[in-house]
Design a protein that fits this description.
The chain is of the alpha+beta class. The protein has 13 helices and 14 strands. Helix 2 (51-65) packs antiparallel against helix 3, helix 7 packs antiparallel against helix 8 (266-300) and helix 8 (266-300) crosses helix 11. The radius of gyration is 26 Å and the shape is globular.
Length: 421
């Protein structure tokens, strides 16, 4: 089986390389913003611009407007225009299939459209420029990235051309040792990005993996929740680290400190960097936990089938008492990781219906307990007397669904947040 696999790992550049990376990010941002501004001018004049025509126009006059860009690799300019063209293609596609109109309707229904449109108009971006999904100008300090080609990798370092040279990798042996990804039919570009003072490299590779022959008969039901991030039908419990809640006190203190600083001063920049590092740490803890759980479910347990829930996360976030906690978990990311890892290892994934009564149904006698609330952490069946943890009970019901046993459904009028938490 052929798959497109992404690799992303942290770089360990020296000070000279860090400085060069910053200049490359600035050049990529400058070219992208120049192309976007020129695209809008030509479009309003009745022309039909393209990324290729804009690139030719920029190359013809770059010695006049930005002669310094010749000191940087040309692939940075080339990839910036390619990204701009892809952004407009994606916007026009969503405009044509009605996705943009649907997003505007959702914003109007929630009362956020007037505020968004007013902010965009204040920036001089009214009309179609205020549409959701329309390409935006890049700002300094955000989306700091550029792309390089003609690179090669070794176990502990990566070659990024003569202008940069060899750059050390903090994680050895993760990216395959290849001279050129183009030879393997993969991407020819490597993306270099920065977050909270750390530099990363990401590449995509077309790989051939053997077709997995799964002779297992194990069926695992997985119930997602907030008290425990995931509970399996075999009794395995994965605790929720709650990285955002644990760091909330420090985040609040840093935000107050940033507010007291004079904007753009050296102290303000130091506090902002500390705040960015804290957010990056929270994200890393969450991502690491989700990868550990998905790997254990798919690879270590090696089941034949995994049954998960189809959670309405957006609807659950309407409960403002739980919105932050739900956002802190990352339910969709966990589901995404389980699905693609299961495909690699020949494991079937069944997604239960959104209204399936996994929490309110007795796993022993299939009796539905209508008065179950979020405060009830134990499921006590009034029919057979079964007393069991509510999350384990829901996971066992999901496993029974994977086995094909019939379980009564949930009334449509019941709220999803009460049924699935």
């Amino acid at each position: 089986m052929e798959i497109l696999r992404a690799y992303k790992t942290e770089l360990d550049p020296n000070n000279k390389q860090r400085s060069f990376f910053g200049r490359c990010c600035g050049a990529s941002r400058y070219v992208y913003n120049w192309g976007l501004a020129e695209w809008e001018c030509q479009y309003e004049a009745g022309n039909k611009p393209s990324a290729y025509s804009l690139k030719k126009q920029f190359n013809a006059q770059k010695d006049r407007i930005c002669p310094w860009i010749r000191m940087l690799p040309y692939c940075i300019t080339e990839s910036a225009f390619a990204n701009l063209g892809s952004a407009f293609q994606r916007y026009f596609k969503e405009k044509k299939d009605g996705t943009v109109t649907k997003r505007i309707a959702q914003l109007k229904k929630s009362g956020k459209w007037a505020t968004r449109y007013a902010k965009m108009a204040k920036k001089g971006r009214s009309g179609y420029r205020a549409d959701p999904g329309y390409p935006k100008f890049k700002k300094r300090g955000r989306q700091s990235s550029f792309q390089m080609r003609g690179y090669k990798t070794q176990s502990s370092r990566v070659w990024l051309g003569r202008s940069i040279g060899w750059v050390r990798l903090k994680e050895h042996g993760y990216i395959p040792d290849l001279v050129s990804y183009k030879e393997n039919g993969g991407a020819t570009y490597a993306t270099i990005s920065e977050r909270a003072g750390r530099w990363y490299i990401s590449v995509q590779v077309q790989e051939q993996i053997p077709d997995s022959v799964n002779d297992s008969t194990l069926i695992v039901g997985v119930d997602f929740g907030l008290k425990s991030l995931a509970v399996c039908s075999d009794g395995t419990v994965y605790e929720n680290p709650r990285p955002l809640r644990e760091a909330q006190r420090k985040l609040s203190r840093l935000n107050r400190e940033l507010d007291r600083r004079t904007r753009s001063s050296q102290s303000w920049k130091k506090t902002k960097d500390r705040l960015a590092r804290q957010h990056a740490r929270i994200s890393a803890i969450r991502k690491h936990t989700l990868h550990q759980i998905s790997h254990d479910l798919v690879v270590n347990k090696h089941p034949a089938t995994i049954v998960i829930e189809d959670l309405n996360v957006q609807g659950m976030q309407a409960n403002h008492r739980l919105a932050q906690a739900i956002s802190d978990v990352g339910f969709y990311e966990l589901r995404r990781q389980i699905e693609y890892k299961a495909q690699w290892h020949g494991v079937e994934v069944i997604v239960a219906d959104r209204w399936y009564a996994s929490s309110k149904t007795c796993s022993n006698c299939s009796n539905i307990k209508e008065d179950l609330t979020l405060a009830d952490r134990e499921f006590i069946c009034s029919n057979c007397g079964l007393t069991i943890d509510r999350d384990l009970n829901a996971a066992m019901n999901l496993a029974a669904l994977g086995e094909g046993r019939n379980t009564p459904g949930l009334p449509v009028e019941l709220e999803c947040s009460e049924a699935l938490l």
